[in-house]
Amino acid sequence: MDFLEEVAKVAKDLGLSYEKEESVRIHIGGLIMEISPSDGGGRVVISMQLPSEDASPEDVKEAAENFGKALSIAFKLGGELRYELDTSLPSYPYLYIVREYDDAKKLVDDLRKVLGELRIR
Hints:
The protein is an alpha+beta fold. The protein has one domain: Aspartate Aminotransferase, domain 1 (Alpha-Beta Complex), CATH 3.90.1150. 39% of the residues lie in helices and 33% in strands. A 6-stranded antiparallel beta sheet has the order 1-2-3-4-6-5, covered by helices on one side. A hairpin with a 2-residue loop joins β3 (31-38) and β4. The mean pLDDT is 92.
């Protein structure tokens, strides 16, 4: 079984919504966790839309909850994290939290553990 098939199996076994193409995108509430292969390992990118200038108080509250969930997942994955902010479309700003893995097997094991513990749907 290849790396992305294993990632898709983790999502399926946990009952999470996902798509598999050149990467696997797992939907976790207002977050998208995208897992893709990289040189010798893999990459996890957790993305979330940030509130724009015309956001309602409910939008801000939802973004804060999503941010907390994203950080919880990212820190449970461990390792060095990188943060990227995309404001190329001011009305749709996005935050990306990136975790690189040298070992694809460790990435799959970490995903299984973290997503299984969180029981996020």
